[in-house]
Design a protein that fits this description.
This protein is mostly helical. The protein is 75% helix and 0% strand. The radius of gyration is 29 Å and the shape is rod-shaped. The model has no long low-confidence stretch (mean pLDDT 95).
């Protein structure tokens, strides 16, 4: 993942761990399938059922781990979104702030956004605080514009948090895209379709009824 580095490793630790566990679990099922073939007490069908039982236990555990990793990332995203959306309260007071807002309002409508963006990029806290710390219409911008510029300001002043947010979203997307592959890979590891194993289980259960005292 391009978002993975020293700044985001802790954010993606849970995602990395659950995919590693899934990889190992699928390998364990492959190994169990081969081991089952060497058990002289098991028929091919019995070995298949036991392998599927083992795979089911691992899959159930992993499904919970994937859900937990998704929930953790969702909480991280919510926290970072909140941090990167904090209003600049108390920055837009004073005569100078009023003059700055008046100046921005006097600019042609198509130039206001660009002017404020340049102030953000230049680290001009006085101008940014005056505009984004006040009511948007006093500077001739809409609330939507103010929200977008506020996010740009926070991302510019806290690039690490912005990077972590991108990483958390990428991790959540990765789990959504690839988490479901676990079931198909487990089926390959078992060596048979679920429907076949279910039929074998049903036949085994029916046969075992004859031995009930």
């Amino acid at each position: 993942m391009p978002e993975y580095d020293d700044d985001t490793a802790s954010i993606l630790a849970g995602t990395e761990a659950v995919f590693t566990e899934a990889y190992i679990a699928v390998g364990r099922v492959h190994d169990a399938r081969e081991a089952g073939k060497t058990n002289p007490a098991w028929t091919e069908a019995a070995a298949l059922i036991e392998t599927q039982n083992f795979a089911d236990k691992l899959t159930t555990s992993l499904a919970k781990r994937f859900d937990s990793a998704s929930a953790n990332l969702t909480r991280v995203i919510a926290g970072l979104e909140s941090d990167l959306s904090q209003p600049l309260e108390g920055r837009g007071v004073g005569a100078m702030a009023g003059e700055i807002r008046s100046y921005v309002h006097s600019l042609p409508e198509g130039q206001r956004m660009g002017f404020i963006q340049k102030a953000i990029e230049a680290g001009d806290e006085r101008t940014v605080g005056a505009v984004l710390g006040g009511v948007p219409y006093l500077s001739g911008i809409t609330p939507e514009m103010a929200t977008m510029l506020l996010r740009l300001y926070h991302e510019n002043t806290n690039p690490r948090a912005a990077k972590q947010l991108r990483a958390a979203k990428a991790g959540l997307e990765l789990i959504g895209e690839r988490g479901g592959l676990l079931f198909a890979e487990m089926e390959k590891a078992v060596g048979a379709k679920q429907a076949k194993v279910q039929k074998l289980r049903a036949a085994k259960a029916a046969a075992e009824k004859s031995f009930v005292v």
